Amino acid sequence: MPKILIIEDEAAIRRVLVKILSEENDTYELEEAEDGLVGIEKIKKEDYDLVLCDIKMPKMDGVEVLEATKLLKPEIPMVMISGHGDLDTAVQTMRLGAFDYISKPPDLNRLLNTVRNALDRKELVVQNKILKTKISKNYQMIGESPAIADIKDIIEKVAPTEARVLITGANGTGKELVAHWLHQKSERAGGPMIEVNCAAIPSELIESELFGHVKGAFTSANKDRAGKFEAANGGTIFLDEIGDMSLSAQAKVLRALQENRVQRVGSDKDIKVDVRVIAATNKDLKKEIEEGRFREDLYHRLAVILIQVPALNDRRDDIPLLVEYFSNKIANEQGTANKAFSEDALALLKSYDWSGNIRELRNVVERLIILSGATVEENDVKLYATK
């Protein structure tokens, strides 16, 4: 249930805002504060999904409330309420981090659209924080082989820059992991990391997913919706399996990269975005270009830095380290004791052909841990690895 705080010294305006929002959505939990000081005390004690705040108020004005809130709880979107003479100040609040501003008297559609978009943004921020927590626990680059050492060295050099990166490699090699490391080691690490699996989204929906849509843009578009590029503003967007993207969507991505602007489906309004793009593919994009399935100009925009992730067969010396990492992780997940792998078992695993790469190795390690005795021996690998 979205929780919204209205900070406004004019009781009549507060009543109007409460009436509009309660009629729009009876699940909104609405609270009021008659001035900035009361509002800040409420913000300190409660977690709000959105704050609507007047600019001109006694005791503590809206700009001061905005600055204090950004220090206390920067994740809360703030929508400023401006009188006719406050427009210059309202624009200034946008530079200070306000989500948007609305003018008095509040226009019904403008208010409702702004509230919906701000709540959507808050939800995306929360989801991204959860994702970041998972990433910090689950994404580690394991390996000491020359190939992995080279990738780590490239990441250290490239991550602090704004250069776009194209990651190539077969399925299961860890392209997603490289993308997350690039983001975590970049200046944008404090911003969102938004992932889009281009192969998993139907071609007719990919543009809406990336750029958002306005209400009525198509049959099921019953409200305005922000796209992934907007959600990634100030951070990184990871376009996985970009080789599967339609030519129409490629053209719009190219425009976004050239102009740092997007348009929601069904709208002609430009929305400025500040996003670093990292892309990945398991396809040969140069061959796709020759066959007319991928835009050459987009390829050159994306491939400022190329990172080729090696197959597991090309980094066999990392297998013992990967087995140890996966066995520890699986034991923690299942709440069981960790199992050691004998030297002979590891040697046999190193000799296998890993067509499914690291993803396949992880599955085999889990199978061996479940089916083997106290220690995983060579015979267990022969029985259960199913090679």
From TrEMBL:
GO terms for biological process: phosphorelay signal transduction system; regulation of DNA-templated transcription. Keywords: ATP-binding, Nucleotide-binding, Phosphoprotein. It comes from the Bacteria. Residues 3-119 form the Response regulatory domain. Residues 141-370 form the Sigma-54 factor interaction domain. Coiled coil: none annotated. InterPro entries: AAA+_ATPase, AAA_lid_NorR, CheY-like_superfamily, P-loop_NTPase, Sig_transdc_resp-reg_receiver, Sigma_54_int, Sigma_54_int_dom_ATP-bd_2. The keyword Phosphoprotein applies. One of its GO terms (molecular function) is ATP binding. Pfam families: AAA_lid_14, Response_reg, Sigma54_activat. The modification 4-aspartylphosphate is found at residue 54. This is Sigma-54 dependent transcriptional regulator/res ponse regulator. The lineage of its organism: Bacteria, Pseudomonadati, Bacteroidota, Flavobacteriia, Flavobacteriales.
